[in-house]
Each structure stands twice: as structure tokens, then as C-alpha cells.
Amino acid sequence: MTQARPGGMDGRQSVIDLHCHSRASDGHLAPAEVVARAAGQGVRVLALTDHDTLAGVAEAAAEADRCGISLIPAVECSCTWQGRELHIVGLAVDPNAPALQAQLRNARDARWRRMQRIAQKLAAKRIPGVFEEVVAAVGDGMPTRAHVARVLYASGHVHSLQQAFDRYIGRGKPAWCRADWPTMEDCVAAIREAGGQAVLAHPLAYGMTGAWLRRTLMAFGDAGGEAVEVVCGSSDRQAVLTATGQALRAGLKGSVGSDFHNPENPWIELGRLRPLPPAVIPVWHDWSLQID
Ligand code: MN
Ligand code: MN
Ligand code: MN
How many whole angstroms from 50 Cα to the centroid of ligand 3? Predict the structure, then answer.
């Protein structure tokens, strides 16, 4: 067992990063590029966690072999609990497990259906053709609202990607559409059937009160969830403390992940993570890792 440990100039360099994205979903880099960048940042154990797809894992694993780092097959699943959307990272899953594959197919269908509804709402706002643009941009990847934002930006309808969310596709905005995600329970079950560990991603990003988050984590643990992402790329010291308290109270292990998407964002970098507090059992506690 090895702890992610401080090593960078400001103590925010982890050899373990268990959350990031490639072009297989809404990241900006190819899977191999993500891995090479992670290796360059000193990461030794990386989980590629694209949204609802394992399509990037094979390419990432091949590059990880080349770079001499460990690639953990993983996925970030969207799901709902009590009417709220949650993101659950499935770590160390078998990419060929039938239950998980079926789950991801359902999620992919749900994403395309949502994309059609978003495009219809945008067409009603005199912005036609978005669906076709997204299809062309996504290819074999997973359609996300980030793709819509890029289409709106490229066509000059917004001045920034953020403005696309603020004006059109963010929650409660004119082209907002809820997707019919699977339930949290089904999502955790599919991850477990694939031999993986379920981690509740970025617990402080849902806008929940502390009491709601406690209830969510208890239900997540009851469903077979194993860990909380205690350290995120965006976490300040207080956020780590808050998430640590929540993890300990719910009896869950802790994970660490940057949620890297885009090399142009100077605030989020692969492996740039505060250390996991020693009070928390790391989700990788029982993995056999070769890290000195
Ligand atoms: Mn994303
Ligand atoms: Mn997420
Ligand atoms: Mn993510």
C-alpha cells in the first residue's frame, strides 16, 4: 500500500490520480495524450474515467505500458438518486463485463436522446443544426453538453464555453434537458458486477447541504459504494477537511482525482492534488501497486 504523497513545489503533487477525461468523452486530448501528460507530471497510477464510456481505455493502457505507469480501467457514470444527478466513478472495472456494458449502452442512448431534445430547444431559439454538428464532432465518443457548448462557441452564438451553459444549456436555462439516467443503485451494482469499486465523485460539487450529503453517502454505502472522492483537483484545504469528515462519518474509503479535461485550464492539472488525509483509508488500500 502506498500513500499519494506531497512532492511538488507546493505539496500538491500526487503519484496517484484516479479521475480524468479524454476525447472519448468531453476531454480535449486523445487517451494516449492524457497518459503521456500524466506521466510527465509524475503520475504513476492513473485512472481514465470518461463519462459513461470505456472506449478510451485500450489506447490509454497501451500508452501507459509504453510510459511505465499503471492504467486503471475506469469510467465516470451519471446516475440519479432522489431526483438528483450524481456522478459515480467505477475504478478497476473489467471493461468486458456484460452488466456494465449494458449499463453504459443505456447511458449512451440516454445521452443521445437528451442531445436531440437540447438541439430541438436550441432550434426553437433560432439556432438550428446543433445535433448534426455534435454528431460530427463526437464521432465514436460520448456526447456531452461540452460538445454543445463548443458548437455554440464556434458558431459565434456565445463568447465563451461558460456562456453557453449560463445562457442556454445550464440547469434551468432555456435549452436545459434532464437525461433519464440509471439509478444510483443500478449504477453501483453494475460497477460491482464488473469487479470494480464505486466512488462518489466530487461530493461538494452537487450543491447539497451537509445533511443531504450525509444522507446521500449513507445511501451510497448501503448500495455497495466503497469510497468518496475526498481530494479533487479543485479542492482547497477546507474542502478536503469537509469531505474527509463526510467520508469518515459514512464509513467510506477515500479517493483522489483531478477531473482533468483540458490542458488550457491552468487550475486543474493531472496529478496536481493535495494529499489524502491519513485518517481516511485509501480506495487503493488493497491494490498491489508498484510505487516506491
Ligand atoms: Mn466532463
Ligand atoms: Mn463529474
Ligand atoms: Mn469527471
Answer: 7
